[in-house]
Design brief:
mainly alpha, 17 helices, elongated
């Protein structure tokens, strides 16, 4: 059994690294690609340290013996970013990278210990698991496991409407996969925490082995059905979009939006954008964006342009010889080029062609 465990840990480490290389080669340029790759390499690194504990070998340079510590902080941030990228149809803001700050802080602290207090790194994980008192890096690792658990508990709360109150039948498989990923991370982090706290070697090996087994099953599933994630993502993304507006009074939101567009003619404002319109409605900009996408079937720019072009057409019908550029500025366009592109997109003809048709007594529809 001991020999099998050693071989399985070696396989697990190599498997995660190969998986990371596979993501690098096959998924480059796709949403969530960079951090999915980081997560795979991070998993492989943790399993290497589990095998190192199993085999009893150590690195000569003390700092390397504690290289698993920043990895514990790296996994939550990279996994959260990856999940958000896959769920969202819009790019996740670069500000989300702040989730990697804890990793950088821990790296700086470990390097500082190596420089200014090197004796604090002399006790390796192998030494600790023989019954010695906790070292400073181990305290960092325990805090990292708590950070890992709390991060994914927060994600479960954040996606609670998707996981536990999801009316979208098409998203059921995706919901199960998302739930397994979130709860699996909490389970792994908890096992590492408990195993480190109680010096339970077998717990570390068990966690690494199960993580490898789950990764293998996921790979087999995608090989059996190459379209697996393509099949589950659309429904899951739709659920993610609608979940962000479930707490809104949608009927009132539509009434308020109609009032601003049809009574106050906010679309005529050249500076109108998603941010200032959502502020007038008293909601977040992402909520307005999701409402327009999910319930009106278009994006914000399309909605504004529809109202602008509709008014332009009405004014042309009243006076076919009107100055078209003047109309464009009147309804909120800031350039002739933008006006022409928007008009042609909606009416399938240029503004001048439409005016000519109206002038001949025809109606372009």
């Amino acid at each position: 059994m001991s020999e099998f465990m050693g071989s399985w840990l070696q396989f697990g480490a190599w498997y995660h690294f190969v998986l990371g290389i596979g993501i690098l080669v096959k998924e480059k340029g796709s949403k969530g690609f960079p951090f999915a790759m980081v997560a795979a390499f991070s998993g492989g690194t943790l399993i290497i340290y589990a095998y190192r504990l199993f085999a009893g070998f150590e690195f000569e340079f003390p700092l390397l013996n504690h290289g698993y510590v920043p990895i514990i902080y790296l996994i939550p941030g990279s996994m959260q970013y990856t999940i958000e990228q896959f769920l969202s149809t819009e790019p996740v803001s670069i500000g989300k990278l702040k989730r990697l700050y804890p990793t950088f802080v821990v790296i700086v602290l470990l390097v500082s210990l190596q420089i200014f207090y090197p004796q604090s790194l002399e006790q390796s994980m192998n030494d600790s698991f023989t019954g010695l008192s906790f070292s400073i890096p181990e305290y960092f690792a325990l805090l990292g496991c708590l950070y890992w658990v709390i991060s994914f508990l927060w994600m479960i709360y954040q996606y609670r409407h998707i996981l536990y109150n999801n009316p979208n039948e098409e998203a059921k498989l995706g919901v199960r996969v998302l739930g397994m990923i979130l709860k699996g991370n909490i389970t792994f982090a908890s096992f590492i925490f408990v195993s480190t706290l109680f010096r339970w070697n077998s717990g570390i090996y068990f966690t690494a082995g199960i993580a490898t087994l789950m990764a293998v099953f996921a790979f087999i599933g995608t090989e059996i059905n190459h379209e697996l994630f393509k099949d589950i993502l659309p429904g899951l993304r739709q659920s993610y979009r609608t979940s962000r507006i479930l707490n809104l009074n949608l009927e009132k939101l539509q009434q308020d939006l109609d009032y601003l567009l049809k009574q106050e003619f906010v679309y005529r404002e050249e500076t109108i954008n998603l941010s200032n319109l959502s502020e007038r409605l008293g909601i977040k900009d992402y909520q307005l964006s999701e409402y327009i996408n999910a319930y009106l079937g278009m994006n914000f720019n399309r909605l504004v342009n529809e109202y602008r072009i509709a008014e332009v057409c009405q004014l042309i019908e009243q006076n076919p010889k009107v100055n078209l550029l003047s109309l464009a500025y009147q309804v909120g366009f800031n350039s002739k080029a933008n006006f022409n592109v928007a008009f042609k997109s909606l009416k399938k003809m240029s503004p001048s062609d439409y005016a000519k048709l109206v002038g001949k007594g025809e109606r372009g529809r």
